[in-house]
Automatic annotation (TrEMBL):
This is Uncharacterized protein.
């Protein structure tokens, strides 16, 4: 799931996701996790300075994050939780956890909105021949 995915996540997957991930260095893991997160973003969202542009995108553009169950958002969110648990509040990592949480929240809202609008459209535009008949 990407060349930047932290190696700890690969090890966790190999165990069948049966054990909690242990992070030795929250700062190093956070940097690797952020690179992986950037890699999963739709084209054009990641900026040269490492920031993320907040633009509303079509559902299809979220394909890497739309992967269901354990292959997409689940692994991302589980690993984010382990990073948060390992983070030392006395140290400020290069990639601030609060900024990451804010962006992940924005992404989830954008994906939900994109999915909702795509689901609603086909029913509204369904041809008359496909509509249920009332006897």
């Amino acid at each position: 799931m990407g060349k930047y995915r932290p190696k700890e996540i690969g090890a966790w997957i190999k165990t069948g996701r049966a054990v909690e991930l242990t992070i030795k260095s929250a700062a190093a893991f956070g940097e690797q996790w952020w690179q992986w997160y950037l890699e999963l973003q739709p084209a054009g969202r990641a900026q040269e300075d490492g920031s993320l542009q907040r633009v509303v995108l079509d559902k299809a553009e979220w394909s890497e994050l739309y992967k269901g169950m354990i292959n997409g958002m689940y692994s991302l969110l589980a690993s984010l939780a382990w990073w948060l648990k390992a983070a030392n509040p006395a140290c400020t990592p290069k990639v601030e956890v609060s900024k990451v949480l804010d962006d992940v929240n924005w992404v989830l809202e954008a994906m939900t909105h994109a999915h909702s609008s795509k689901r609603a459209s086909p029913k509204a535009e369904e041809p008359a021949s496909k509509k249920a008949r009332i006897a």
